[in-house]
Amino acid sequence: MSRKAKLFELMGKREAIALRRKAQSLTKIEAERATHDALCEKLAQMQADNAPGAGLMHPRTLYAKSWYSGKLQSQREMTEERVNFLQREADGIRQTMTYLQRKGDILTQKTYAAKAEAQQEAEEKAQSLMPPRQNRGIL
């Protein structure tokens, strides 16, 4: 294998390793996003359960429910922002993975081309070292 083909092959392996690392990162981010999605739904359910009833209520109870509802709302907003951030991160990683995949494909093509070029050069060299053929005509 020629030096050029070996370099392209090593560069392709480097891109494959980077692609695997990005895939692992994406898996972790997706798991965290799913966890935060579930938490956001749970907070929404808790907020709905805490809504004041239709009957008479003591002012302190109404105040406590209002305070608790406000805290739940702020937690929910923070969780939704985190989910949105994780989604943007996942999208960025997917774009990077696409770029790395294309780059790896290009390097693979260049490796094959360099190997074919080295093979062609070896054949030409072997051909030049062979003694010339004598043209024998059929009589």
Average pLDDT number: 89
Helix and strand composition category: mainly alpha
C-alpha termini separation: 46 Å
Order of helices and strands: HH
Task: Give an overview in words.
The chain is mostly helical and about 140 residues long. It has one domain. Helix content is about 85%, strand content about 0%. Helix 1 runs antiparallel to helix 2. The longest helix has about 70 residues. The two termini are about 45 Å apart. About 5% of the residues are buried. The model has no long low-confidence stretch (mean pLDDT about 90).
Q: Any key phrases for this structure?
A:
139 residues; mainly alpha; 2 helices
Describe what is shown at a glance.
By secondary structure, this protein is mostly helical. It has two helices and no strands. It has one domain.
Q: Helices, strands, pairings?
A:
Blueprint: H1 3-49, H2 59-129
Helix pairs in contact: 1-2
